[in-house]
Amino acid sequence: MAISRDDTLNWIKACAVVIAENRDTLVELDSAIGDADHGANMHRGFQAVLGKLPELAEQDIGTILKSAGMTLVSTVGGASGPLYGTLFLQAGMPLMGKMEMNLDDWVAALEAAVKGVMQRGKAQAGEKTMLDALLPALDSLKQSQAAGEPLATALVLSAQAAEKGMQATIPMIARKGRASYLGERSAGHQDPGATSSYLLIKTAAATWAAG
Q: In this model, does residue 210 exceed pLDDT 80?
């Protein structure tokens, strides 16, 4: 099993749908510990990415992801634009010129993406950010890679790890971003960035593992 260019395009389209479906949930989560704009910003960004996809239909996977990243940077407001833009831009770097990817390729892409987000946000695990979903997803993928798991299995396990990571942000005290201003009052709320990141990983599994 391999993930084709068309599979990649379908993932991005599905992400736009899932973000739209969860827009109000993301707004609600962000209203508790942030600026209440994460859902609207992410929705606007992915709708802009959708508008770019027709001109990318014949491009390689890396180019598609980099273009999505640049679009997110320019259309998503607040801190999320640079962070999610970096996520896609860096994911595209190891995939330049590739028309399909296997598990090794996706591990390399996600690892580059997570490192980029860590550098851009100056954040690490346990600080109640999107990384608390992304890092467990990456760790799970690496474990599946080492164990020789099929790609479909690896994707599903990665999504499950991201979900657990997202849920683990609820008791955390935020150390980064707008939520950090609340100090201990940020505990008890699920992080909106971890939630949207989980949705992206979950959608990758739902789109690609069924292929």
A: no
